[in-house]
Amino acid sequence: MGAWGLALALAWALLLARGRALENGLAWTPPMGWLAWERFRCNVDCEADPQNCISEKLFFDMADRLAEDGWRELGYKYINIDDCWSAKQRDASGQLVPDPKRFPRGIKALADYVHSRGLKLGIYGDLGTLTCGGYPGTTVDRVEQDAQTFAQWGVDMLKLDGCYSSDKEQAEGYPKMAKALNATGRPIVYSCSWPAYQGGLPPKVNYTLLAEICNLWRNYGDIEDSWDSVLSIVDWFSAHQDVLQPAAGPGHWNDPDMLIIGNFGLSYEQSRSQMALWTVMAAPLLMSTDLRTISPSAKEILQNRLMIQINQDPLGIQGRRIVQEKFHIEVFLRPLSQAASALVFFSRRTDMPFRYTTSLAKLDFPDHAMYEVQDVYSGKIISSLKTGDNFTVVINPSGVVMWYLYPMAQPWRLVKQQGPEGGVRPVIL
């Protein structure tokens, strides 16, 4: 089956799957926002490092940046707390409480402020005796209580990790938390780490069940601030795309982890590559960088409007790697709504820019079609590209060229319709 036949089959499958998705009406497109972990980890030393420790100041600051620097209007709306926010013990009633020194006003006050800025607040929990950082976990008997606590605080997303829990506890606890969150009556996006603790693949991971339980899920290990880490994630997702791609869709997404653009480990070209590859994979776009000091070039990559439009495409089909050349060029395709497509030409080379020649026909696009093409990064437009036309893209080492393709009207698919001033204009049937 060619790329377009596959796209049609997937579109029908997604429409059928919507009825089986988690019934909270949330995350119909991949969530976008900011997450603390990769950049700030479990830094709790606010005396030595008050600007960068896990405290209410950090999240107030990031909320201000999302609201004031153009992020919110582009869809980056979640401010997500990760591990190490809580006190080391629950209170006398058994309720989770934030660290009183680092969050003196409490999570409810932080949520109220985030909401006042037109944003949403996410928080972290762990389905185990302890979180990964050693803070109180949410054991199975505490699930309903903690769900109610998060709802009362005004939380809008929960990431539930899996450290210090058994397979049995995960199998019981992850579905139980989905029901508990829904029972609060508050819309809370539910991010599960369950598959990552089960190896990410069937038979241990049941993706049909996951889509009924979670809005997004971590499949694989944590991202690190390095190009090797990005490549390992891309390799794993590509190697297992036949299993992973059908699992994703509106309301339920594979999560390859955070965007590390703007940190220390990626070059400019590699940053552009991560953004393009995460977009073509229909990944949540959760930045983990310091938005107070981000460079103009990193900000430009993350705020690319056409890129975000592609990521948020309502059809919700995850892209696939469709070509893997022996000379280390790869091609990824994501079918989009209205018969559009996104193509990513990705170079794993480390020597020099590579001239890659191919055609849409070689990439299984429909015969005798014609497209308008826009380069997602440069904005350059190629008009009237026919399926059979050879073209060449120049891809920098560890870089990408990304195209947005939109089908143009074909002569045999046109009718004449009365236009302004008595003229006629073509209309696509």
TrEMBL record:
Organism of this sequence: Casuarius casuarius
Pfam families: Melibiase_2, Melibiase_2_C
Signal peptide: 1-21
EC number, as in UniProt: 3.2.1.-
Enzyme class: hydrolase
Location of this chain's protein in the cell: Lysosome
Protein name as annotated: Alpha-galactosidase
GO BP annotations listed: glycolipid catabolic process; glycoside catabolic process; oligosaccharide metabolic process
Function, as annotated: Removes terminal alpha-N-acetylgalactosamine residues from glycolipids and glycopeptides. Required for the breakdown of glycolipids.
Catalytic activity, as annotated: a neolactoside IV(3)-alpha-GalNAc,IV(2)-alpha-Fuc-nLc4Cer(d18:1(4E)) + H2O = a neolactoside IV(2)-alpha-Fuc-nLc4Cer(d18:1(4E)) + N-acetyl-alpha-D-galactosamine; a neolactoside IV(3)-alpha-GalNAc,IV(2)-alpha-Fuc-nLc4Cer(d18:0) + H2O = a neolactoside IV(2)-alpha-Fuc-nLc4Cer(d18:0) + N-acetyl-alpha-D-galactosamine; Cleavage of non-reducing alpha-(1->3)-N-acetylgalactosamine residues from human blood group A and AB mucin glycoproteins, Forssman hapten and blood group A lacto series glycolipids; a globoside IV3GalNAc-Gb4Cer + H2O = N-acetyl-alpha-D-galactosamine + a globoside Gb4Cer
PANTHER family in alphabetical order: ALPHA-GALACTOSIDASE/ALPHA-N-ACETYLGALACTOSAMINIDASE (PTHR11452), ALPHA-N-ACETYLGALACTOSAMINIDASE (PTHR11452:SF25)
Record family assignment: Belongs to the glycosyl hydrolase 27 family.
An example molecular function term from Gene Ontology annotations: alpha-N-acetylgalactosaminidase activity
Keywords, in A-Z order: Disulfide bond, Glycoprotein, Glycosidase, Hydrolase, Lipid metabolism, Lysosome, Signal
